[in-house]
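Chapter summary example.
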Amino acid sequence: MQKLLIYISGLMFGVGVSMGGMANPAKVQNFFDVFGVWDPSLALVMGGALLVTAPGYWLIFKRGKPLFAGGFSVPTNRTIDAKLIFGSATFGIGWGIAGFCPGASIPVMSTLNPDVLIFSGAMIAGIFAAKGMMHLAAQRSAKAGQAA
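The structure predicted for these 148 residues follows.
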């Protein structure tokens, strides 16, 4: 049952992305083009999502625990550090240039559009490269700590 609900949630997300026009990178790029062909529809899609999500979270957290888990998995780290700022900036710049955010690119991959496939492949490669660099940095930090 849990897998079926995951599938239905993903399907609803994909349909919402498509219906909201977010499968079209030009929509996103035009939102950021405030001095050109500005398109405010992205803000409307995001605002509509917040109007549904905020009460949804309130109702879900009011239950005390999820249906298929012992508890909610909520981030507890509230630290704003260089890694968070750099990652957020990289995400925003990439989103503005490509017109896709990682979440929206996944359902659009089903179109087999070469641009989407290239973006998604580069995104996956970037994830692995970042994880590898973080692993190397942690190893160097551990070695420096041992040497001191």
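To summarize the output: The chain has one domain: 2-147.
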